[in-house]
Amino acid sequence: MIYIPDEIHFIINKLNSFGNHCFLVGGCVRDYLLNKKPKDFDIVTTATIDEIKRLFTKVISTGEKHGTLTVVNGNYACEVTSINSGESNLDINKLLKSNLLKRDFTINSLAMDINGEIYDFCDGKNDLFNIIIKFNFDPVDRIKEDPLRMMRFVRFGCELNFKQDEQSKVSIFKNAHLINNVSSERIRDELSKILLSDYPANGVKQLFSLELLQYVIPELIDSYGFNQHSPYHDKDVFSHTLEVLEHSPKKLNIRLGALLHDVAKPVTFSIDENNIGHFYNHPKVGAQMAEDILRSLKYDNKTINNVSILIKEHMHRNRFSSHAEAKRFINRVGTDNIDDLFDLHIADIKGSKYSSAISDVEYNKKLVKEILESDEVLSIADLEINGYDLMELGFKPGPKIGDILKKLHELVLENPEFNRRDKLLEIVQDEYC
């Protein structure tokens, strides 16, 4: 029997207690048949919209014009859809079938009652057992109803590691341009789910082959087949990007960084007299391109900023030559991004020809950990004097105070023992007064 949390049981029992019929539908039934614990629960019921509103205290009108409300109970937000046609004698089977036939994929068009009986009008169970994902009936009709279903097709394929129906793929290929009719926010959410799946590289590869990527992130298209002419890489830029994605941990910032870390290589490419390729400033240019891409997809500012830092710093992975260099690195990257950047470094190296460089990253990780656990100065704010101390020495408020503090900071990074109030004031008086 399917696992149903108490909060969802409460919703079903309350609807049933007033003479209604309820069915679990969609992903939770699919996951149950795949022996997975469902995360989300959707319900269809013969209760009317007004009755649902009356029975529950916390109801959100998420899709009321389509008969759907979100009922919140405890930690669960459950979509409850009314299939009540308003007729005096309801044909339950007919109403349920009508609802299921309108759904996107056969494997999401299953229903189950509280006793565990499965209702399958679209051959969804058979497709589940044959591990194949395909649209319900005419793929073009399903796509035109909601073009985001094209990205959902890719997402379910790489989340479940299912085969994909050929007719469905051809229909997506021919109608990929319709993704332009979908809001950036919805595309962003689907892209994030693809990247956070168990097979993100396969998902991005599918987006490319189905010609969706050229509308979602057109900046990545030029990387396909782009020969790097590099002794460090035996793959083109796009294939390398997929390798890095495959080796990256399941965290959104890291996977966005992996996806976009080399986005600027085609636009910064040059080749020398020895036929060796170079990509000068590609981390800096790529960081700016990534900001523009993520902003167009409506990612939040924190995500945009953090991913930009990862891309800008993704080539700074040589073994630190000193504690001072490590502390400058921490300062630039920020403590919140350090671990993510190291993970991106390792994934990037694994996607190249020289995995031996991982030892340098491991050394850097160890040194950074030691520094962060110590009381060593990292930022200007850690200095034992500040701008007010300089003003007491007679300096007027202005840029000069900032310049002096920056120079003192650099001095202390190299010589931590100098971070004493008396010593720093002595240096200021000797060198700047």
Automatic annotation (TrEMBL):
Its EC number is 2.7.7.72. Residues 161-220 form the tRNA nucleotidyltransferase/poly(A) polymerase RNA and SrmB- binding domain. Its cofactor is Mg(2+). GO terms for biological process: tRNA processing. The keyword Secreted does not apply. It comes from the Bacteria. Keywords: Magnesium, Metal-binding, Nucleotide-binding, Nucleotidyltransferase, RNA-binding, Transferase, tRNA processing. It is an enzyme of class 2 (transferase). GO terms for molecular function: CCA tRNA nucleotidyltransferase activity; metal ion binding; nucleotide binding; tRNA binding. Residues 22-133 form the Poly A polymerase head domain. Residues 288-427 form the CCA-adding enzyme C-terminal domain. Belongs to the tRNA nucleotidyltransferase/poly(A) polymerase family. This is CCA tRNA nucleotidyltransferase.
